[in-house]
Amino acid sequence: MKEILADLDAWRAEGRQVALARVVNVEGSGPRDPGAAMAVSDNGDVIGSVSGGCVEGAVVVEALDILESGERRMVSFGYSDDEAFAVGLTCGGTIHLFIEPLDW
Amino acid sequence: MTELYERLREAIQDERPVALATVIEGHNAGAKLVVEPDGDIVGTLGHTELDRIVSRDAVGELAAGRTGVRHYGAEGQARETDVSVFIESFSPPPIMLVFGAVDFTASLARAGKLLGFNVIVADARSVFATVKRFPMADRVMVAWPDEVFDHYGDRLGPHDAVCILTHDPKFDVPAVQRAVATDVGYIGVMGSRRTHATRLERLHEVGVDQKGIDRLMAPIGLDIGSRTPEETAISVCAEIIANRTGHVAPSLRDSEGPIHRPPAEG
After folding, report:
1. Closest Cα of chain B to A57: distance in Å?
2. In this structure, are residues B229 and B202 in contact, taking their beta carbons and an 8 Å threshold?
3. Please, what's the b/e burial string for B85-106 (b: 16 or more CB within 10 A of its CB; e: otherwise)?
4. How many Å is the Cα radius of gyration of chain B?
5. Contacts of residue B2 in chain A, CB cutoff 8 Å?
6. pTM for this prediction
7. What ipTM does the predicted assembly reach?
8. How far is B8 from chain A (nearest CA, A)?
9. Has residue B106 got a pLDDT over 90?
């Protein structure tokens, strides 16, 4: 989150609504460790990253939805034959994200 | 509603350690505590006992530089899993002390910045130790090693690095002497194998023991055939990473023969 702090400040100063997604847990092989963060603003701008680019697109969709509903939640992405994982990590791991509005 | 964020941001900007605890599953998801190393807290997870237990754990996680999820009962009970709390540690940037304002210094300082180090360049010669030559460094000190270690020695720990590039016994013997007296995780010393053999004699003379000698990565860097200052900076930084993670990488210290060999045929 450190890396995106300056950008977050700028967004807050502009009065943007922001959703923050943080990696809280990684099982198996994952590209980024817990603490990796990305943020999405209400007009769809993105800063930071939570994987090697594998799931960022899906995180943006989730983040915008959470900005709309205001409901924070856990979201997981993994590699699986299971169709539940439409978006996945090619490295075989699973990452768990906590996504929430930056209203605190 | 922004006190938590502001407290967190201020601590990170001032390079003070701070932890952020967030309930991610269970009652009060999203509730937060900002925890400082002395146990001071801002915010609440919704229950005073849970706050007390989590802040205590967060202080420990912060000291260890760990980030991860812990589970508690609704009132902070151990061995229960009603509430999952993500504790994120924000540590100040690690320190890289570079001794010697030589041609390799600028590249190493640049690579150190890339890795997130707070880079301090020190040399006793004021003509060479200038901000103009090392604009990428966070600080340039015209100072002897003693003065530098008087200032930074107590702050050095496992994630910090000391790189001694002077290869002049006048500087590097006192720098090594003071470095091995700290808890710094990495001590690299530049120079040929012959230079290092002579240096070892001098270090013995001034009383550096074998335990101290064993901590030295000399010649500095991994054996990847680097030649230019930029390549050497990469080999040093890679060695610092391998040293910290405990992974096996071929250090020059552990190989034999010339540091600069011609490339292998084929």
Report:
1. 22
2. no
3. bbbbbbbebbbbbbbbbbebbb
4. 22
5. 12, 104
6. 0.81
7. 0.90
8. 10
9. yes
